[in-house]
Write a structure and sequence with these properties.
This protein is mainly α. The chain has one domain (3-150). The chain has helices at residues 3-7, 20-27, 37-45, 49-71, 76-96, 98-108, 115-150. Helix 3 packs across helix 4 and helix 4 (49-71) runs antiparallel to helix 5. The longest helix has 36 residues, at 115-150.
């Protein structure tokens, strides 16, 4: 986290990545130790937060899908289609409630409600401002080249 994060109201915390077994527990809905608080905030506010949410959802769906594919009797293509339908339906609901689910993870990590949303909006505003500056500079360069070519 940077000083800009602290200015936006997002506490600056060290980002300590959890071990793989702890990430699996976290993906399945479990909590992480206190030392991983900063990582939870990073995980839910980084530019790829929605992809990370999808990865956690797929990790949650892996257990019942594997059970359907392995233990349900019948032809594999029927079990496969049932598993595919389950993945599609599970992802549909997961994506429908994505902001609420992510915010709940942040609250469970000890941050106030709304922290992740505020951090994502602040980062988006910063990116848009930087992009606007870049576009204005490029337009200014194009205008200068045009004036130089036309002799004005």
């Amino acid at each position: 986290m940077t000083a800009a994060d602290t200015e936006r109201g997002v506490p600056a915390e060290p980002v300590v990545r959890p071990a793989p077994h702890r990430w699996i527990w976290y993906a399945l809905g479990g909590g992480l130790p206190e030392r991983n608080r900063g990582w939870v905030l990073h995980d839910t506010t980084t530019r790829t937060w929605w992809l990370r949410h999808v990865a956690r959802s797929l990790a949650q769906l892996a257990v019942p899908i594997a059970a359907v594919l392995i233990f349900v009797p019948g032809p594999f293509w029927i079990r496969g289609m049932a598993a595919l339908a389950g993945v599609i339906l599970g992802l549909f609901f997961s994506l429908a409630y994505m902001p609420e689910t992510v915010e709940h993870r942040v609250v469970r990590a000890g941050f106030p409600a709304g922290t992740a949303t505020a951090a994502r909006h602040g980062a988006a505003e910063e990116r848009e401002a930087g992009e606007s500056i870049r576009r204005r500079a490029a337009a200014s360069k194009r205008a200068a080249r045009y004036r130089a070519k036309s002799g004005r």
